[in-house]
């Protein structure tokens, strides 16, 4: 006991408050770092192609030291979760460096670059899950909706601009940042280094837009309406079938949530009214109809090439996995070496960008680290995705729909995201972390405004 302002105060209470304040300060620093990580996922492509093109190569590693700092700080403060997923990928990551150097391609730098995915970024998922609370998740959601508005304006400008325009520069400042589309229009990359970033971003934004229509008091109405319009515009202007499929899947998840909780029927009515009303208005604008025609042309030609919807599903969703498993016995026992299947790895090993192992994610992983380690990663990723879906569905049964709606993107992200591509890896980390964080928070996400 001691006196403070002539009052007797137990020392343990003061020490406890000081400790709590210190922990809150550390947590706040980690949250700020997670925000920076998220913003770098969104805008490091802009740095690499518009503002610092001469440093486009080194900027690929911009998130790595930040991820290391987050992990070290989280470990010191007790926020680093050691579970079967994080421990397994870290062990495989270290073993992959060893096998790559001694029995694989033999380049230590390439091996370390490839293993940083297992050692730094995937463990970050579980730090995000431990650190973020309900307020943090909804704040990220609100800002994602806000950013979707200028992002849509950007891709529309890129859509109508020639590939020689400054706004369509690729990484390194080269012309032609767009990717093949239809009707002489190119798929716009937005602020990202490649066009996949556009669909990945709007997938996540679409989840939050759908959720906020269920909880309209948690966001300003004008932002929700503007964000909804931005998402709908992004579908044709992105010329991305993946974006359309993913948004339809998210709406399907929302419909299932309504079946489990009829109280959300009003939210579904609002979503349907917003979609049809927006499409009705936009259908009278020539810019929108031109983009829709390009999207439809791309959709039909690509589906015909890939054998229709069934061919698309088998090739993109199951085909790569099945083929990788069937051919896994043909790979070296310890693989060709981690990092060899990445663009950076191919540049360091051969001096040019090419797929040295496989273009698909599963073929790349198994080809890099071998059938034993590779299939272990496949198993862990699918096990985590299934666990997320089961837990989020249970939450939805009890009226908490945010984890379930986010899982429509998160489950596919953790199973099918291409970890070798930095933007895809970044969205996988953020999206999966948000799903797990929303599951760890037991609040019912009652309607309240977020700052």
Key attributes of the depicted protein:
mainly alpha, two-stranded antiparallel ribbon, 71% helix, two-stranded antiparallel sheet, single chain, 451 residues, disordered N terminus, disordered C terminus
What report would you give on this structure?
By secondary structure, the protein is mainly α. The protein has one domain (30-440). 71% of the residues lie in helices and 3% in strands. The chain has a two-stranded antiparallel ribbon with strand order 1-2. A two-stranded antiparallel ribbon has the order 3-4. Strand 3 and strand 4 (185-187) form a beta hairpin. The longest helix has 41 residues, at 11-51. The protein is globular and about 60 Å long.
Parts with pLDDT < 50 across at least 5 consecutive residues: 1-12, 444-451
Q: What share of the residues lie within helices?
A: over 70%
Count of distinct structural domains: 1
Distance between the termini: 40 Å
| Residue share in β-strands | under 5%
Structural class, judged by helices and strands?
mainly alpha
Largest sheet: 2 strands, antiparallel
What's the overall average pLDDT, rounded? 86
